[in-house]
Every structure is written in structure tokens, then in C-alpha cells.
Amino acid sequence: MIEYNDKHLEEIQYLEEIINLLKYKLDIETSNLEEQKIDLIAARKEMWENTTHSSADFDKLSDLNQYLSALQAQTFTYTELAKRISKYEKMLDSPYFARIDFTEQGYDDTDKIYIGLFNLMDEETHDIKVYDWRAPISSVYYRNELGPVEYKAPAGIIKGTITLKRQYKITKGEMEYFFDSNINILDEMLMEALSQNMTSKMKTIVETIQKQQDLIIRDLENDLLVVQGVAGSGKSSVALHRIAFLMYQGLNYKLSANNIIVISPNPLFSKYISNVLPELGEDNINEFTFENIFFKLYESRLSVKTKSENFENIICAATEEERNFLRSYNEFKGSKTFKEILDRFVYYFEHKMIKFEDVYFNGEFLETKQLLKSFLLSGKLNMPTAKKLKIMENRIIEKLHERKLSRRSKIEKAVVKLNQHEFESKSFTRMLAAKETASFIKNLHNFTEFDCFELYKTLFENRKIFNAVSKGLILPENIEKIINYTNQSLQDRYNIPYADGMGLVYLKIKAEGCDLFRDIKQVVVDEAQDYYPLHYHILKNLYRDARFTVVGDVNQSVEKKSDVSIYDDIIEIFGFEKNNKVFLNKSYRSSYEISKFSSKLLEEGTYTEYFKRNEEEPEIIQCKTTDELDNKLIKDIENYKSQGLNTVAIICKNRKTAADLYFRIAGRTKVKLVDYLEEQSITGTIIVPVYLAKGLEFDAVMVYGTDNKTYNTDYDKKLLYIACTRALHRLSLYYTGKITRYLK
Ligand SMILES: Nc1ncnc2c1ncn2[C@@H]1O[C@H](COP(=O)(O)OP(=O)(O)OP(=O)(O)O)[C@@H](O)[C@H]1O
């Protein structure tokens, strides 16, 4: 007891010291911020008063530039200061969550390493009072038990011994409790983290990162890291913490927010994860869906159906035959075969489709078509077709300029002959020459420019071309139907099928090139199981200078059949020498009872462990009629709310069922319909189609309509698995008629 009291006193004193240090720093930085703010306003005012605002005065414009760069630097200092203040404020609430006592090999002193969200240094003594969780030494806390350890630091491997591992619960600057452990991070702390209610945004997990997760977060060896993790194993969390780690890293790896991109399945998911990086003290990063990429490349000239819309169409197909067709359509358009067809098509276009012409100007040959063709096809220019054509066009325009003067005097002579007024003749000549050049360039564009959408259409409209570029490839049996459906669908350029949208993106990158994303150095792909090979080829070609972290779960693949071999395909597509495939088999999200229940829906032989957090057993509820079911739902929603569960999701198989249910019960209880058509957030009680709930989690999940007609194929079984694994604390399933065979 005495020993505990001593420890307690020591810890309370340290906490006091840290809180005082933080308050001191906060005071200084806050007054600095005030000063900076005043300076900044003054600098802006000065700039406004002393510079011109018209582009006519070039000297003054250069003054403006100088002011602007000074202002930019000042603004940067100001925002950095504001960020530091926000970090100190966060730390005031809970400055650290762990401590290790570490003795480096060859030294007698033992360092007490306190670990928190951010570094905290005493500027006077240069002592690090709290280490950032991402600092090299912090890895020891996540990965090791007491005893000899080693960790990788920039200076090399550091060896030593850990004699203490302690965890703290500090809130509002007050010590709630602490305890020592000799094993990995104690389950109590994790239990507490996992028992909490859900908020509308994803949480950070720094205090309880598990060893397997830490290995992924801190991996710097690989250019491609592929993670297969069961539902709730922390894939998305780990991917985001990995980004925060990379943003913290030293010179070689340091990334800023605009060097990173997350490819997410839909805007709802993007919104859900958008809190994590700011919580970790980092700027937020861009989250892109593939549809966003499409719009970035094609702007408003075309429009594509979203991935969610595409999936809704599949689920709601009128017949099984139609559903199978739509699946086969997506499968073909996303396949390696189709990618090969598009590659060949670009080659075919260059070699056979460009209508080269002899180019004349002023009655002289500028280029012959043979010369132009051999220039384009010589193979010397290793670049996309559009860029080669542009070079060719520039070469011709240069030649045109060389001959422009003589052409102009020719025109002038002709004009003068017709007209005696010299002044008018000159301007008339200029106008004629400009018109002539414009029409020349327009003609030139006939073969130096092309439209990718028209090109893509031609591939399917012209059977001769399609046959030529697919020769020798194994095509699906229903290729005729696929081609017809494509031709029909492409009639409306503002409603292009999602799968063709991806084909168009790939074609554009290959034929025109794309330098829009050269700054991107790290790409995270979430829900990796639902993308086809073509998606990965797009990413590879778009983010040519990036490294990739790809996370997914083949058990949650609903858009296509997939098994773990997809990860080998991904590795092959990217072709990085340094890559690694990692498995996360332990699930943290759901209570033990919900996890056990959901595991019945997994493929046989799937290995999963569950964190043992006990709660109520899931319930399966049979109702005689839809009315009875609606009444029961409403009652249970109220019941869940009264139990203090923050977020409740009623998960339906598709949007139509969700909307119907919403219109039936919305007047009787407070619910919100979450749809892919609008930006939404996931607070309170929501009704949502299952594919939009992917990646999200809720305190209570109510799965609507689990009868044998609704869930009757292996695809449906996976949808059901996804729905059930969204629940943290409560799960109930409702049906009328006969229950699905997967839940018997
Ligand atoms: N080490 C951890 N400490 C605390 N909570 C954790 C930890 N790992 C995972 N979790 C929690 O488990 C839940 C699931 O995490 P996450 O959503 O990242 O998993 P996922 O594998 O992406 O899930 P899914 O594939 O089912 O969408 C989250 O609530 C997360 O905070």
C-alpha cells in the first residue's frame, strides 16, 4: 500500500508538472498568436494601401508580389502557431496515456518515457517530457512486454530493457487511475475503449493500438502494403493512423496533407473518417471516390452513375437473369481482359484510326502525311498519344509561323488590288490572315485532337475494331449482349454506367496522360475487395509516384466473387519489388455475442478471433405482418434510445426497401433516411441500405427483412454479414414469412 501511495504521489506530481508546463506554454503561445494576428492585419492593411490593384502598373504589381510572399510566410507562422495551441489544449485534457521505463544497453540511467498524442519539450532543460506516440521509442510500448527490447531509431537499432509499463486514464487534466502491466497493452483499457458508445465520426485508437496493428502503422519498408482484415479488425483505423505516422516521419518520408489521398467507397464513408487526422493533430487529407476521379478527368462534359447507384441497380434487378447479366457486365469491364483491350485499342487508334493528311500552307507542303505518321509511330516518343499529337501539332504551327509573313504579303497584294485605301487594306489583310490561320488550325485539329468519349463509343460501335483489338483474348460468352448494352447505355453521356466510367478513365489516362496527381506520394485504398483489376491499373497509372496501402476484407465483398487471391493480383498489378501482405484476424468492434453470431455467416474455414466483451445476445424477431414488424421496430428503437445507445441503424437490403420503410414509420419515430443521393451524416437513428453502411458502425443495428426471399444467395449472405458486423452493442434481426436459410 505504501508502495502504491509513493507511486501515486510521484505520478500526481509529474502530472502537475506537465499541466503547469502546458499552461505556461499555452500562455506564451496565446499571446504570440495575438501579436501575430495584429501584425498580420497590419501587414494586410499596408499591402492594400501601398500597392496597386490594377494590372496596368507593372512596377507596383511586383511590389504586390513581394508583399504577398511576406504575407504568405506570416500566415503560415500564424497557422502553425494556432495548430500548436490546439495541440497543447488537447494535451491539457489528457497529456499522456502511457509510460515505459527504459534502460539503454550500456547506460545505468533509466529513462521514464511518457507517451501521449504529441511531443512536449521543456525548452529550458531540453528534456522531452512527453513523447509523441509516433516517436520511434513509443513503438516499444505497443510491441513489447517487460524485458529486453530493441527499436529502430533514425540512428540505427537501439537496444535496452523495459522495467515498467504503465497506463493512465487522465481526463480534464486529472488523474483518474493508472495501472502497471507486464504484458502487452492491457485488455482493461481496450475494453473501456470498445465499450463506449459510438459517435458520428470514427475514433482514434492511439492509446490501445495492438502489436499487429502497430507493425502496419509503422511500416516504412514497403512500397505496397496489402492488409486483409476481418470485419472490425481495425483496418480503416490502422490505415488512417498509418497516415498520421507517415506525416510525422523524418526527412525521407515526411508527407503533408496534399501528398496523401484516401480512395473511399462513397462520400458517407469519407465523412465518417474525416475526423481522425484532425484529432491526431494533422491536417485533413483528400478523400476521393473513383467517381470523383472520373469527374476530375472529364469535368462536366460527361456524368457517371455512382458505385452505390450501380450496386443498387444490381440488387434491385427485376430478375435473377438480369442481375447476373449486370454482374457479368461489371466483371468484364473491370477485368484484365478489358484493360488489355483498351491498351490495344489505344495502339490501334494511333496506327490505324488517325486520319493523317498532307499539310499545305500558302501553296507549299508543310508536312507530308507519311512524315507525320512515321514521326508519331517511330516509337521515339514514349508518351501518350495526345501528347505526341500535340508535339506534332506544335511542329507544324512553328513551320506555319515561319511562312506567315510571306503569306501575309501575298494576301496584302491581293487586297490592295481590290481596294485602294492603304489603311483599310492593312487591317483587312490582318483579319483575313487571322481567319485563314484559324481555319488552318481547325483543320489540323481534325487529326491532332480526339475525344475520348467518342473514341470509347467507337470501340463498341465498330465491330471490326472490337474484333481486331480483342483477337485471341478469352471473352465472356455473353459478349454480344454486353456490347449491345454498352452501345445503348452510352447514348446518354450524362448517365454513363459506372463500369464504363472506369473504362473511360483508363482510356483517357492511356491516350491523353494525366499529370493532375503528381504530388501524391501515399495512397490508401479502403474496401479494396470491391474493386476490379482495372481500378488498380487506374490507380497505378494515375499515382505514378505514390506508395500504396490497400486494406480490405474478402468476406465483405458483395459486388463480385473474391477470395484472398485478389491481393496477389493487386501486388502483381502494382509490380512493386517491396511489398507485403498482412492479415488482421482479431475483431474488436462488436461484442463477443454479436461477433459469434455473425461468424455463422462467414465462409467455412475463415479464421477469426474476437475480443471478449460480453453483452446481450442478438435477437431474431419474427412478425406476422409488415405492420406488426413496423410497430415492433418503433418500439425497439425507443427502447434502444432509452438505454442510452447513441446511434441506431436500421439496415435494409436496398434503397427502395429503406425508402419504403422510412415513409411508413417516419411520422411515428425520429428517423433519418440515408441515401447515396445526398450528403448525410450518421447521427441518431438512421435507415440505410446495407452497401452504404459498409465501413461504418453503430451502437445498435436492426437488420430489416431477413426472410428467405430477401437473403437467398451467397451474395446476400455476405450482405447480411456486413449488416450484422456493423453493430457494437446490440443486434436484432426482423422478418416476416420464413427466415433466411443463412440464419437457421
Ligand atoms: N487497437 C484498438 N483499440 C481500440 N479500438 C480499436 C482498436 N482496433 C480497432 N478498434 C475499434 O474497432 C472498430 C472497428 O475498427 P475499423 O472500423 O477500423 O475496422 P475495419 O477492419 O475497417 O472494419 P470493417 O471492415 O468491418 O469496416 C472501431 O470502433 C475501432 O475504433
From TrEMBL:
Record's keyword annotation contains ATP-binding: yes
Glycosyltransferase keyword on record: no
Provenance organism: Sedimentibacter saalensis
A Pfam match: UvrD_C_2
GO molecular function annotation: 3'-5' DNA helicase activity; ATP binding; DNA binding; hydrolase activity
Alphabetic keyword roster: ATP-binding, Helicase, Hydrolase, Nucleotide-binding
One GO-annotated biological process of the protein: recombinational repair
Protein name listed in UniProt: DNA helicase-2/ATP-dependent DNA helicase PcrA
Domain UvrD-like helicase ATP-binding per the UniProt entry, residue ranges: 208-591
PROSITE patterns the UniProt entry points to: UVRD_HELICASE_ATP_BIND
Binding positions (ATP): G229, V230, A231, G232, S233, G234, K235, S236
Record InterPro entries: DNA_helicase_UvrD/REP, P-loop_NTPase, UvrD-like_ATP-bd, UvrD-like_helicase_C
